[in-house]
Amino acid sequence: MEDQKLQIALDRHQLSHAKKGLGFALISGLLWAASGTALYTASLKDPFTQASEMVGLIIAASLSLAMIHDAAASILVFIFNAINGKSKEFFRTLRTRPGKIVCLGAIMGGPVGMSGSLLGITMAGSTYAMPITATYPALAAIFSTIFLKEKNPPRVWVGILLCIAGALIIGYTPTDETMSPNFKLGIALSCLATIGWATEGVVSTYGMDTLDPDVVLSIRELTSTVVFGVIVMPIMAVSGIMGSIPGWDITIAAFKTPVVLVAALAGLFGGTSYILWYRALNSTGVARAMALNICYALWSVIMGVLLTDQELTRQSLMGAATIVVGALLVVANPRELFSLRKV
Amino acid sequence: MSRTLPLRLRILQYLDEHQGNSLSPSQIYVALEPEYKGEGQFSPAKMKWHLMCIKAVGLIEGVEPFWDEFGEPSYRFRVTEAGHRNLAYLG
Asked: What ipTM is given for this predicted complex?
């Protein structure tokens, strides 16, 4: 009798741990939508304005925004960790092999994923590029099943696919644009971005098996910011992709206007979203965390209707409903989270 | 003098050093206190959270359930074969 009582109490304890992880993933999606809304607002103002038809300016502005976003997130996460007594852990972690593996994940997710996605949209058009990059949770789920031996029952797979389908329905915009000469390269770069994001999820989760997620995230954001500023932007400028406009000029110009505050606010939302997402990757596994994170498409619809003059269309309603069903399937049995892998 | 490891990696290493024995969260906490004392990430409650996270990914397992000194349900923990293997690579 006493044993049974103890087992029930332990189950309840583990269930609360699992539910916390699922909650982290859901809220991370909400904050990611808030970050996206703030980034979009910033992108409409000088010096980020994308009103120009010049491709180089669009890329320079987007990369510059991405770097400011990651830098702000990096500062936020570092302060968060200092407050929580994890400053020493940051340097300890960097010296270890899993810490270095995490740096590789950061490069895959930040500079490779983000640059690939932005260039893909610019060269192939969002109608073709976005559906490709939106499949990253499915690819991550495949990677996590193969490399991390994650246990994902068929119900979770269906849920992941429905979440992706919902995001695609919400984001789909038909186009009659003619294909650009760099169309194939744009498609290839979108595929690279998808692989980059999926790899980041799996590699970081592997690192977090033995490292604190908050510290791992701090390394991720710092690595991403440095690689953006020191490698990606100069390479883009030298290669001529950004025309004669080096990304640094836009970044410096942004710091002279209040728009940098909007970009930084996006970084704060994004940083908080990432804190929760990394915790979720660690406690719910890659597949579930990614499926729930992509629910940001649903939150974006809600925020668009409540905070802006965006209308609720039949298309976005259908997409939102699909995401809700998918998310419910993903979270349906938190007991599965007691043991995430076949080891 | 050896460098201090990140806490979760050290927990796994400590359990690996005691292979065959299962240890309670408070036993691990007391053993690692000299290395991590005063750090915000290191408290009896957070030790349980760290252990639950490492357990979920299969590097350690929970055995011999018991009621701890705070009246909370708990496991004793020991390293798994996967944990031992990973540590050999990561440590």
From this structure: 0.90
